[in-house]
Amino acid sequence: MDQTTPRLLRALAGETLDRPPVWFMRQAGRSLPEYRELRTRAKDFISFCHDPEMAAEATLQPMRRFPMDAAIVFADILLIPGALGQEVWFEAGEGPRLGPLPEIAAMRDAVEGSTAKLSAIGETLKLVRAELEPERALIGFAGGPWTVATYMIEGRGSMREEARSFAYAQPEKLDALLDVLVDSTARYLVMQARSGAQALKIFESWADNLAEDVFERIVIRPHRAIVEKVRAAGVTAPFIGFPRGAGALVDNYAAAVPVEGVALDTQASAALGRRLQAGGKTVQGALDNLLLREGGKALDARVETLLEQWSGGPYIFNLGHGVMPDTPVEHIARVVSRVTGQPVKAFGLQGAGVA
């Protein structure tokens, strides 16, 4: 692949590079003081996500501060339920809340128009791509259908016991809901790719505690269908799948879902990553976000271990989950400096009150 191609895309094409590309989940916002100031200007979180200029600014803030190899669009996985007719809002300090689950038939009828209701995210991507340097990639994303369904069923983030019980008690209804989410998600990701996203990620945040047959039905099957629908629309952007918490079932996922990259959570072993690389997948992730927050020698040692164990194959340096809001900016800078070889002092830390 051409040396001018963004490092992230080269890794997702299967190249083993002189150093892995680096970006962090939830790098847009949360821990940066400039994001917190920007957030005060929005009426609410949903309005923030649907304001292209504000969302583009949030996307670009970490790119100005750190030499990340990729930006990820500032949005949220729960925008699709809103586009399908379910009420969605965020309670300060408590997280997302959703109204009653609409009838499946009504949501099915809403699928075709759902992407138009999310057009602001496409505008955000266009604004970011126009400002972002050509050597830095732009990532679009959506939530995995099962994860989005858990919020839609339970009305909030929780232990997901109600949603898992729903999967057993009403399998036909859950499958119908997942089919609606597959269709709307595929359309949404096609729009993102056509708006400038160069890679696409599916965040299945709640892939844990599922029996193998259930995992096949509610995670693998929908993910495979999304990728196939996006490819059928002519989109060639590489996919990263993130079945967080899947444990030993990650092997099943990698074998069955035609994604180019597999994002790994904190529990992933060195051997798992090497198996996936040997099977033709690019691996990403596994650095504990709590360790990033705490910093110190243990963080330095873990970064070195990850670089040593997976840099012999296609690899993207990242976390096993998103940056926590109270993560010191200097800890992020220290890790990015180690991975990229660029000095910390070049990262604009003065704005964070760091000497």
Task: Give a short overview.
With 355 residues, the chain is α/β, with parallel strands linked by helices. It has a single domain, classed as TIM Barrel, CATH 3.20.20.210.
CATH architecture: Alpha-Beta Barrel
Q: Kindly, what is the distance between the CA atoms of the first and last residues, rounded to a whole number of angstroms?
A: 40 Å
| Biggest sheet character | 7 strands, parallel
| Percentage of β-strand residues | 5-15%
CATH class designation: Alpha Beta
**Strand tally, please?**
9
Structural class: alpha/beta
Please state the average pLDDT score: 95
Helices, by number, come to 16
Strand order of the largest sheet: 1-4-5-6-7-8-9
Rg, rounded, reads 19 Å
CATH topology, by name, is TIM Barrel
Percent of residues in helices comes to 40-55%
**Low-confidence spans:** 350-355
Task: Note the overall shape.
Answer: globular
> Which H/E pattern describes the elements?
HHHHEHEEHHEHHHEHEHEHEHHEH
Provide the domain count.
1
Explain the overall architecture.
α13 links the parallel β7 and β8. The protein has helices at residues 7-12, 33-39, 45-49, 52-65, 79-83, 104-117, 119-131, 145-154, 161-169, 171-194, 212-232, 250-256, 270-278, 289-294, 296-310, 329-340; strands spanning 70-72, 88-91, 95-98, 137-143, 199-204, 239-243, 261-264, 282-285, 315-316. It has a single domain (7-342), classed as TIM Barrel, CATH 3.20.20. The strands form 2 sheets. It has a 7-stranded parallel sheet. α8 crosses α10. The longest helix has 24 residues, at 171-194. With 355 residues, it is of the alpha/beta class.
